[in-house]
Amino acid sequence: MMYGQVLHPQCPADCFINVNVGGFKQRMEHDVLKRFPQTRLGRLLCCSSDAAVLELCDDFSPSEMEYYFDRSPRFFCYILNFYLTGKIHLVDGLCVVSFFQEIEYWGIKERHLDFCCSNKFHELMKRAEDKCWIRLEDPGYSTSAKVMAVASLSVVIVSIVTMCVHSMPDYHQVDLNEKEIENPVLTCFEIVCVLYFSVEFILRLAVAPSARKFLCGPLNMIDLLSIMPFYVTIACDIMDKGENPSLENVGKVVQILRLMRVFRILKLARHSAGLRSLGATLRNSSSEVGQLVLFLSVGISMFSALIYFVEKESQESELQTMPIGWWWATISMTTVGYGDTFPVTLAGKLIGTLCILCGLLMVALPVTNIFNKFSTFYERQRHIDLRRSNN
Predict the structure, then answer these.
(1) What is the pLDDT of residues 305-347, one digit of tens each?
(2) How far apart are CA 307 and CA 325, in angstroms?
(3) Among 81-85, 125-129, 164-168, 373-377, which is the least confidently predicted range?
(4) Integer CA distances (angstroms), 102 to 27, 38, 72, 75, 254, in order
(5) Is 293 exposed, middle or buried (0-12, 13-18, 19+ CB in 10 A)?
(6) pLDDT tens for each residue of 287-313
(7) CATH 3.30.70 for the 137-271 domain, yes or no
(8) What is the C-alpha to C-alpha distance for residues 28 and 80, in angstroms, rounded to an integer?
């Protein structure tokens, strides 16, 4: 008797099917297979055409009722045991991912794992997913992780360059009606980059230990914001082709969504310890940033009022209103000094000098604490990256 024999010789011949898995042959009884109608072999009994049969097996012989499967004959012994007992066991020496792929092929669910193997299976699957997660998140984990990180960084750079080139007039194209259209070459680059970002995002979401924490992560939200406008733009373009008057503003919405592609620049933070440290610094410096905004707001309000009162009588001065005074005080206190507006009277110049000096002091006070925090986070991030690389 063959290993895993599940048949009885006294049964009629039409109650059996012959299964050939990688050269390993086995006769299997219909009644046994009907106990598990959702499995691949159980579904064979319900096929009404040759095409339906070939969707479930690699080849078959109608005269001999023999079905051929190009799969592992060693693993098929465990499949036979499953039809006997209703339970499947882990295969010693077989990768848990390969085991999962095999039972998925034969249509066997995880719930059919025997109790003795269930916990071990889920533990091994979790380890496999964690390895994939680390490989995607930590470029220093392995050579393949470095290759994926370099590929991701290259696509980000290509996307940014494409976005910049798209804004240049030399690369603009128009149709026969003089209506501006998308450059086909740049559009091709755009599609390839977005598809790469989409696959990368879905893959990282699939192997993330917690999907909820993944979606709430700042960098992951940036990734989502960088790819969603592309698909929403396609939907808006399709809607815009109609004659519906209510969609007359779709074109403006599309332009706004295309502008959101600038978020892809922030994807560089995933590959830069400095940018990650900057984000951590801003998250933990709300008090200092609040103080900076408060100091500047008080200074801008005060100096805009002073410059307005001393300059409003001068015909040559452009500081004739308070809003213009706010703009002048802002660029003066932050020491930007565009030079588009400036005081012309002696009193106005003295107030301008005082405004610049006060601006230097107000900006320097909280910025020192912010810089110290940035240095701390940067050194910590460098140590983390170095430790991961050594491991």
Answers:
(1) 898 888 888 888 888 888 888 999 999 888 888 888 888 889 8
(2) 7
(3) 125-129
(4) 21, 15, 9, 8, 46
(5) exposed
(6) 778 888 888 888 988 998 898 888 888
(7) no
(8) 9
Q: Name the nearest CA neighbour of 250 among 274, 264, 231, 233.
A: 233
- Give dist(CA 66, CA 253) in Å, integer: 60
DSSP per residue, 206-263: HH-S-HHHHHHSHHHHHHHHHHHHHHHHHHHHHHHTS--GGGTTHHHHHHHHHHGGGG
Q: CB 13: neighbour CB atoms within 10 A?
A: 7
Q: Which CATH superfamily is domain 13-85 in?
A: Potassium Channel Kv1.1; Chain A (3.30.710.10)
Beta strands 180-181 and 173-174, pairing class:
antiparallel
Structure tokens at 172: 């603009």
CATH code: domain 286-383 is: 1.10.287.70
Question: Do 286-383 and 13-85 fall under one CATH topology?
Answer: no
- Domain ranges in the chain? 13-85, 137-271, 286-383
Cβ neighbours of 313 (radius 10 Å): 9
**Average pLDDT over all residues of the chain:** 78
- List, as one string, the DSSP characters of 3-21: TT----TTS-GGGEEEEEE
**Interval 90-129: pLDDT, tens:** 887 777 778 888 888 999 888 888 888 887 887 777 666 6
Q: Could you tell me if 186 and 165 are in contact, meaning their C-beta atoms sit under 8 angstroms apart?
A: yes
Residue 10: per-residue pLDDT: 45
Whether the CB-CB separation of 298 and 365 falls below 8 Å is answered with no
Nearest Cα neighbor of 317 from 349, 289, 358 is 349
Task: Say which residues have a Cβ less than 8 Å from residue 111's Cβ, sequence separation at least 6.
Answer: none
